[in-house]
Amino acid sequence: MGPNDSILKGPKMTEPRTLADVVNDIRHSWANIPVPARFYLEDLEQLSTREETFYSAETPYPGEPDRVLVECFLMNAQDWQGATADYLKRELKETVS
Fold first, then answer.
1. How would you classify residue 9: left for phi > 0, otherwise alpha for psi between -120 and 50, otherwise beta?
2. What is the residue range of 64's domain?
3. Is 43:66 a contact under the CB 8 Å cutoff?
C-alpha cells in the first residue's frame, strides 16, 4: 500500500467532490508530474477557483470547456498508474460529466 492510498480509504461521500478537491489530491499524489500534464493541471486549478468556463490566452484551445481540459489532462496523464491514479482520474471525469 502506497503513501497516498488513504485517498482510497476515505469515507464514502454522498455528494461529488469539487474539481478543486480532486486537482489538489492529484498534486499531492503524483510526484514529478510531466510538463504537458502539469500544464493542464494548472489550467484546471484556475478553473476550479471560479464558476465559469476556463479561458486563457496561453492554452492551445482558448475558451475550451472544463470537460475538454480534463480530457487533455487525462491524455497527458497516461503514464500515471496505480489504484490512486485510477481512482482520481475516474473522479476527475465525474466532476465534469
1. alpha
2. 16-95
3. no
